[in-house]
Amino acid sequence: MSSSTIRSRKDASAPSEAEATTTATGPERDATVTKPNGPESATTTTTVTKPKSKFKPPPPEQDSHIFRRSLIIASFWLLVLCLGIPIWWKTTSIYRASLPLNQMMDWANGKACSPVFPIRIAIEAPDLNGQEAQSITSITQYALDTMPDFPGHRLRLEAAPPTPSEGTSPSNGHDDNALVVRLTPGDAATSAPVSSTHSHVPVLEITYPPSMRPTAETTSSGLATYIAAQLRDTFAEEQAITSYFLATSTISSDQHTGIDEPLAKRMTRSMKYSGTYHLTFSLFTSGSTPSSWDIDSAIDQYMRPVLDLLQPIHNFTIDTQVQLYAVPGVQSQSLTKEDLASFINAAEWPLSPSIGGAPTLNFVIFVGDQTIGLNSEEGTSRSWLAPQWGSVYLLSPPTTSHVSSEFLKQPILTFASHLLSLLGTPQSGSLPMRLSTLARVRSVDMLLRASSSLGSLARLSLALPSISIPSSVADGVAKSIHHLELACSKLGSTESLEHARIAETEAEQAFFEKSMVGQLYFPDEHKVAVYLPLLGPVGVPLVMGLLTEFKAWKARRQLKAKTS
Length: 564
Hints:
It is a single chain. A five-stranded mixed β-sheet has the order 4-3-5-7-6. Strands 10-8-12-16-15 form a five-stranded mixed β-sheet, covered by helices on one side. The protein has a three-stranded mixed β-sheet with strand order 11-13-14. By secondary structure, it is α/β, with parallel strands linked by helices. The protein folds into four domains: 3-47, no CATH class; 101-109 and 435-521, no CATH class; 117-240, Rossmann fold (3-Layer(aba) Sandwich), CATH 3.40.50; 271-420, no CATH class. The protein has helices at residues 3-13, 17-20, 63-92, 101-108, 130-146, 222-234, 236-247, 261-269, 295-302, 304-309, 337-343, 409-422, 431-463, 471-489, 494-511, 514-517, 524-563; strands at 29-37, 42-49, 117-124, 153-160, 179-185, 194-197, 203-208, 276-285, 292-293, 315-323, 334-335, 360-367, 371-375, 379-381, 383-386, 390-395, 402-403. It contains 17 helices and 17 strands. Helix 3 (63-92) packs antiparallel against helix 17, helix 7 (236-247) runs parallel beside helix 13 (431-463) and helix 13 packs antiparallel against helix 14. Pathway: Glycolipid biosynthesis; glycosylphosphatidylinositol-anchor biosynthesis. Belongs to the PIGS family. Keywords: Endoplasmic reticulum, Glycoprotein, GPI-anchor biosynthesis, Membrane, Transmembrane, Transmembrane helix.
């Protein structure tokens, strides 16, 4: 091949400089690439272009579409705000009835009622004329008023006409009086006044010497001072019990700060007050005899009179049982104080529980040879009182299989005495006076308990704003306050005790209302944990849609500002 031919092929295969360089203009040019071209180190510049996009930009959104989308979002929010939230608020809101909190706290702090007993005392002086009797009454009243403070009692004396006849009961004609003081002149051998109390009537007998006989012109008398001192001693135990209840209550008073330890120990043995008690009399024996007992006749003869006297204060229901082959918890012949707690075999002895919701007092007679060893000086005993439970009597085995009512006399009399102690009856004075004192101190106890419950309920409602207070609680509080006012106005009477009992019952029911106590176990953290999984799927789309629409509105506004 000739050299001219080779040169022409070479020239034909090598592109010209104009062909090797391509310049692209316009929007399709993206980049320029330079490559070496041949051994002569010539460079070739190549422009790389991208193809045109296949998608066209969306057309401008119409105003009607924008308005429709905004209207849809607004409708959802209006539905939630105007319908959803009110329904949720109504169905989940906690109802709180209106309570008289200030009045409740006044009762709890002792500002609404001061427990002071207006005690009326009649002075009988058969041997004195009307002016002399009135004179000794006035002087004694002045002596009482000038004595050191005697809080809780307001003793008011009045002169009473003499009894019509010797056989008339001293209390006749003085049913409204707590005590009758009968003044009797003594003989010439009497040098100082002497007092004594009746065992079955509320009468204080005072025998004075003739030299102390009062006159109408007397302005001071040693007899009046003696009568005043005897009256204060008569009501001293009642005053101590009232002070004990005040000191152990929520009512703070500078006058009732001290607590007598023996009295406190005695009061802790007594049962909490109840309008009705259930009495269970049980006969337990370790063998097959005795198998029967005349308990009904024994109760009617020896205990029924005491129950009848307690009738204005308490009601009683009674049942009896006999249990053979009962094994005591302690087998020793002489029981010590440490053995008494284990003597009652509660696992095998079928002691009756509370019936009808009333507290039960158990009176157990165990037939056996066991005794209670106290110490060498006092010897042994056959009964003991179990605080707030009942009484146990160890009876010697009878000779027959039937226990007669006469054989049960001493156990039943012991049970009657223990019953009075378990009910919190005072120990001094005649039985009618002790029972009237029991009614007064129990009315104070119920009044303080009801006031304390009202104060606790008021503090609870203030401390827990989210707690439910149903209307039944408000009704119970209103009834309790109403009966408290009646009890305070009639303080010292049997009616006061009944009103105080109703007030205490209503206050306790209001404080322990089931629907209200259940709210204590649902704090705010629990509510958040319940609502958050429910509100998340609903709230997120609503909030995100509102934010998106707000951003689009803001962008349209900026674009309109630029174009204008």
